[in-house]
Amino acid sequence: MSRIFEALRRSDLERGIHPAAVPDAIAPITPVDVTATGAAAAGALEHSHDVHAHPREDARLIALTQPQSVAAEKYRTLATRLRMLQEQSRLKVVVLTSAVAEEGKSVSSANLALTLARSGRQRVLLLEGDLRRPVVAQMFGLRDSSGLTQWLEASTEEPAPLLHVDGTALFLLPAGTPGPDPIELLQSERLKALLQQMRTEFDWIIIDTPPVGLLSDANIWARLADASLLVVREGKTPKQMLRRALQNLERRSLLGVILNQAHVQESAYDRYYAYKPQAQSVPVAKSA
Q1: pTM of the entire predicted model
Q2: What is the band of 264 on the pLDDT scale with cuts at 50, 70, 90?
Q3: How is the chain split into domains, by residue range?
Q4: Which of 55, 74, 99, 245 is the most exposed place for a label (fewest CB within 10 A)?
Q5: pLDDT digits over 131-155, tens only?
Q6: Strands 124-128, 227-233: parallel, antiparallel or unpaired by DSSP?
């Protein structure tokens, strides 16, 4: 049984979701007409700019570049569990954070958002909530430009600078150029209003935040979200920092822990589909 399945099993059972009701397969990524996905576009969506992703070689956007890999399959399983939770609750806005830096939270956020958007039936927003060390634009091979920081600092009523990834139902709102006071921006009424608007325009909002064990930013985002996932890197995360992160996050909203770069043995399933390359690092998850 996949360890990603185990990550959300407890939350599923608490919400009355039976594991047997979850499908194992998800259709491959196909180009979609975003205007046809759900209700008519409104607000910021009407002013979004189409971009073509050119992922960097080290970006590890395997949901886009290696969709047949075992790692991509793990993200599909995680996305499936989240969809089932959404059917049983009001789950829509999910924060991904970590205990310390360089645990792969941004990679996990991007791959999860890409996976949720893969069918084209749901609009997904990847919102970069790390206003201190932005990486989303670079990961997708896009030029750094104005983003959430500049929009929050502005006093105009211009719509948020959304980017639509061509051929998908994924939208990006990068952080932009870091400003002098991220905490003040995160506590602004302007951000609360933006997130409320985005709730009406998107089926999923995935927020990539700074480490919860080091900064208060993630706690602010978590209070604005419906749930959170904690990303932990195998062999890197100090136990003390992990305990602190778990204490900082509200347990009632913590869905699970994603164990990133965990090396797992090849299974009969992997050999059957011939998806797994040599020494592949696979994100798995454990129950929180």
Answers
A1: 0.76
A2: low
A3: 3-29+49-286
A4: 55
A5: 999 999 999 988 877 899 999 998 7
A6: unpaired
Q: What is the pLDDT of residue 267?
A: 47
% pLDDT > 90, the chain:
36
Rounded to the nearest 5 degrees, what angle is found at the Cα of 65, between the Cα atoms of 287 and 114?
A: 50
CA torsion, ordered 45, 51, 53, 54, to nearest 10 deg: -160
CATH superfamily of 3-29+49-286: P-loop containing nucleotide triphosphate hydrolases (3.40.50.300)
Q: How far is CA 205 from CA 119, 143, 228, 238, 254, in A?
A: 16, 22, 12, 29, 16
Q: Which token pair is 51?
A: 């971009």
Contacting residues for 117 by C-beta, under 8 A, at least 6 apart: 123, 124, 165, 168, 169, 170, 204
Q: Assign residue 52 a region: left if phi > 0, alpha if psi is -120 to 50, beta otherwise? A: beta
Identify the bridge partners of residue 258 per DSSP, sorted by sequence position.
Answer: 231, 285
The Cα–Cα gap between 136 and 114 comes to 12
- Nearest residue to 141 (alpha-carbon basis) of 270, 53, 264, 43: 53
Give the number of other CB atoms < 10 A from CB of residue 154. Answer: 11
